[in-house]
Every structure is written in C-alpha cells, then in structure tokens.
Automatic annotation (TrEMBL):
Protein name: Rieske family ferredoxin
Molecular function (Gene Ontology), one example: 2 iron, 2 sulfur cluster binding
UniProt-listed NCBIfam families: MocE_fam_FeS
Stored InterPro entries: MocE_2FeS, Rieske_2Fe-2S, Rieske_2Fe-2S_sf
Species assigned in the record: Neogemmobacter tilapiae
C-alpha cells in the first residue's frame, strides 16, 4: 500500500524553486519546476551532509550550496562532481492544490 504523506501546498513553492520538508527523521526537498511539475528527493547532498534546501534550482537541476555539485531533480542522477552518488527520488502526487509524496 502506498503511503502518501502531505508535504505542502502547491502555492507554497514558486516555479523553479524548492522547499525543505521534514518527516520523522527524514529530510526531503520538494521542487516545483518551471513548467509546474513537482518532484521530491532526498534533502541531503550525497557528497557531504549538507541540506539541499539552500541550493539553487535551474534548468532541471538542483545545485548543492556547498561545493556546487548538481543533480537532475527528475531522476536524482548526480550530474556534476564532486557528488558521484545519485539522490533517491520519491513519487509525487498533486491533488486539490496539495502535494503528497510517497515515503
Ligand atoms: S556537500 Fe554537496 S557538493 Fe559537497
């Protein structure tokens, strides 16, 4: 059974931006793309233990604020060093202006 968890409202995130979402001991980033799709990933960089919520979102990528590694936020793929381990992604569902992620 999928476990859908309410993360935020769609209006909480500007296009090409992100927010941090904490649930239990886990931290996620919820990203809204320029074309209004929503994506959820691990909120911690796979290079060192740095929160990605302070990073930049641009052109389908999220950039870590510490050493500027980038990840494809649709696939979680690490696309620029120094990160070489992909981020875990989580399914997202948008319903009635609310964003749910499957944890
Ligand atoms: S901590 Fe993210 S690139 Fe180093």
């Amino acid at each position: 059974m999928p476990n859908w968890t309410l993360a935020c409202a769609t209006a909480d995130i500007e296009p090409d931006d992100l927010i941090r979402f904490d649930h239990g001991s886990q931290t996620f980033v919820i990203i809204r793309s320029e074309d209004d799709t929503f994506h959820a990933l691990d909120g911690i960089c796979s290079h060192e233990h740095v929160h990605l919520c302070d990073g930049l979102v641009m052109e389908g990528q999220i950039e870590c604020p510490k050493h500027s590694a980038t990840f494809d936020y649709r696939s979680g793929e690490a696309t620029r060093a120094p990160a070489c381990v992909n981020l875990k992604t989580f399914p997202v569902r948008v319903q009635d202006g609310q964003v749910y992620i499957e944890i």
